[in-house]
TrEMBL record:
Range of the intact protein held here: 1 to 163 of 436
Top-level taxon: Bacteria
Assigned protein family: Belongs to the TRAFAC class TrmE-Era-EngA-EngB-Septin-like GTPase superfamily. EngA (Der) GTPase family.
Name assigned to this protein: GTPase Der
Residues of the EngA-type G domain: 3-163
Length: 163
């Protein structure tokens, strides 16, 4: 069975930035952005020669708060159904939100391997504020800057160990 990694999280946390970065690691992109639906993009990536499919989720085109929550829940459920591993991204800029707590709860109940990533940690000074995410009751998170790529190596080392 192929390895499928889905990236989920609220809009604007940096999911697509990481997705694009993962695809750039590959010299020849195979099937990149062959979106099956309007709001999900699929691409191929590899880490140290281990290949996997990445799914970028998002594209929420909704305006009321209720539908917005529903749409995020739908995306998270699709990721749970489709993926073998899930990257749950939040960001230190906006901090922990109620929606993040809801997503975390859905993922925890799914029993799938979940990698919690705190994005927009662009420098050492954002490491301390990131500790607020421990209030989710999690043991570990990865800090990352999708913009620069720092931190992504440690995450990928651990993800491919699951495969
Ligand atoms: P998505 O909605 O979760 O897919 O988020 P995007 O990848 O579209 O990023 C949303 C915004 O955050 C864009 O303006 C990005 O340039 C910015 N962004 C993404 N990653 C980082 C990061 O690591 N650091 C900073 N400072 N900005 C970032
Ligand atoms: Mg996006």
């Amino acid at each position: 069975m192929s390895n499928i990694v889905a990236i989920v999280g609220r809009p604007n946390v940096g999911k697509s930035t990481l997705f694009n970065r993962l695809l750039e690691r590959r010299e020849a992109i195979v099937d990149a952005t062959a979106g099956v639906t309007r709001d999900r993009h699929y691409g191929k990536s590899d880490w140290n020669g281990i290949e996997f499919t990445v799914i970028d989720t998002g594209g929420y085109e909704v305006n009321t708060e209720d539908i917005f929550q529903e749409e995020i829940a739908r995306q998270v459920q699709l990721a749970i159904d489709e993926a073998t591993s899930i990257i749950f991204m939040m960001n230190v800029e906006e901090g922990l939100t109620d929606t993040d707590r809801e997503i975390n709860e859905m993922l925890r109940r799914s029993g799938k391997p979940v990698y919690i990533v705190i994005n927009k940690v662009d420098s050492a000074k954002e490491e301390l504020p990131a500790t607020e995410f421990y209030s989710l009751g999690i043991d570990k998170y990865y800090t990352m800057s999708s913009a620069t790529g720092s931190g992504s190596g440690e995450l990928l080392d651990d993800i491919v160990k699951d495969f």
